Amino acid sequence: MYGTVGANSIGAAELQQVDIGLIPDRYGQKLRNHLIDRFYADGRPAAPLYRLQTTLTASEQKLSLQKDATATRAQLVVNAPYQLIDAATGKILFQANARSFISYNVLEQQYGALATVENAYDRAILEISNEITTRVAAELGRKS
């Protein structure tokens, strides 16, 4: 999994046997695209042995408040519970929860504020996709 073999490693071969289910909403689609990029080095499986199902929720918390109650810093919490399911039997083989905490500055300019929040979501989704990939590969490696 951590070696230099790349796409020919055992973990990569097992990951290619996982069908990644649809994840609702825009950020869910971004997460799914990251997972597809990591799981499928040689294209999607024709007859997957496993199915990965996940959902994505996010919340924002204000961290640093000024005297007038406006926030200058915030934290984005993104939560992604997921399950690895045997495609033949429907049995849940593994379930876990990936979570990311990203802090960012709250800006006064409208475009800057939107760009900062978008960047925070992108960083959180990237962290979550890396965690899911690593944990699913480890679980599949145990089964081999």
The SSE string, one letter per element, is HEHEEEEH
What is the 3D form? Answer: elongated
The average pLDDT score comes to 87
Largest sheet: 5 strands, mixed
Integer-rounded radius of gyration: 18 Å
**First CA to last CA: what distance?**
13 Å
How many β-strands, per DSSP? 5
Please give the count of helices.
Answer: 3
Q: Give the proportion of residues in helices.
A: 25-40%
Task: Please describe the topology of this protein.
Elements: H1 10-15, E1 18-20, H2 26-39, E2 50-54, E3 57-65, E4 71-86, E5 92-105, H3 110-143
Q: Care to give the gist of this entry?
A:
By secondary structure, the chain is of the alpha+beta class.
Walk me through what this model shows.
By secondary structure, this protein is of the alpha+beta class. It is 38% helix and 33% strand. It has helices at 10-15, 26-39, 110-143, and strands at 18-20, 50-54, 57-65, 71-86, 92-105. Strands 1, 2, 3, 4 and 5 form a five-stranded mixed β-sheet that branches. α2 crosses α3 (110-143). The longest helix is centred in the last third of the chain and has 34 residues, at 110-143. The two termini are 13 Å apart. The model is unreliable at 3-8 (pLDDT under 50).
